[in-house]
Amino acid sequence: MSTTxxxxxxxxxxxxxxxxxxxAPQVLKEILQSSVTQPSQxxxxxxxxxxxxxxxxxxxxxxxxxxxxxxMPIVDDAFDFGRIAAANAISDVYAMxxxxxxxxxxxxxxxxxxxxxxxxxxxxxxxTVCAEAGIALAGGHSxxxxxxxxxxxxxxxxxxxxxxxxxxxxxxxxxxxTKAIGVGVLSTAQKRGLLKEDDxxxxxxxxxxxxxxGEKLGAVAGVTAVTDVTGFGLLGHLxxxxxxxxxxxxxxYSNVPKIEGISFYLNQNTIPDATFRNWNAYSVITEIEGDVxxxxxxxxxxxxxxxxxxxxxxxxxSVNEIIALLKENGLEKFITPIGKMIKKEEKVIRxxx
Length: 353
Description:
Shape: globular
Largest sheet: 7 strands, mixed
Strand order of the largest sheet: 8-11-7-12-9-13-10
Mean pLDDT: 93
Number of strands: 13
Order of helices and strands: HHEEEHEHEEEHHHEHEHHEHEHEE
């Protein structure tokens, strides 16, 4: 790491962090309202279902997956910022069950505030993760901005029969999650100078971990719906899955994986602002039962994740196949279902102990 990297803490140059930069759900809904009819021939997935990526039928049994994602720094180090942003953007292709094939960079850089050598480190970090995913960072676009921001536009391919969407869960399906939640809390602790060194290592490791397991899920017929958990938190993305499938969901809170040691930071109230925005959007359709640690659940279920885990629903008769696949791919910590899809109730989400 260069001296320049140590001099500038990137999170201090941005008002938000990672996927916590997302516009609040209620505001986004207003922005996306439109009376314009768009051409839909060959479009298998558009923005009507709040899915992770657009999908276009290529007419030969295969489809093109197209997505973009960018945000402001969630960590201080430029190289790590590039790695995280790249992994997060590529995740949307994996969440559709697809294989990424190409990426383009999206860079906004405050030239008057931060040296260009740091921007180079951001790009280099992204190249590293793209190489890990087996794709080229083939070009992109950059502009001079007030705050640093970075991300990728990513394309992928998939056999249409393997396509996974976020609104096709079925009643009785069991729910799995492939990463622990709490990233927003840890990143807020870092910005406030409270993050322990060991926890920083944990944070970076999780943020840069590719969700390539999604490509394997695409081939499993018993997996009915998939999404990745990002800025709206586990709660928000499960709500999208349940509402899109015309169902409700029960969350077994004690089974939800949480980053080890997260209570230390919760006790110091290191809660991202986006957590409150998310909760305000979802509280009216969420029921948390009395035997649950309500304050902890409130702080963690809507906690904005960056490059969070894959949330997916599985038919009961395919659970053993999924557990074996999780173990084969080093995800044995995540073999316990975190909940279940149920018949539609008054509340969309019911959180039980």
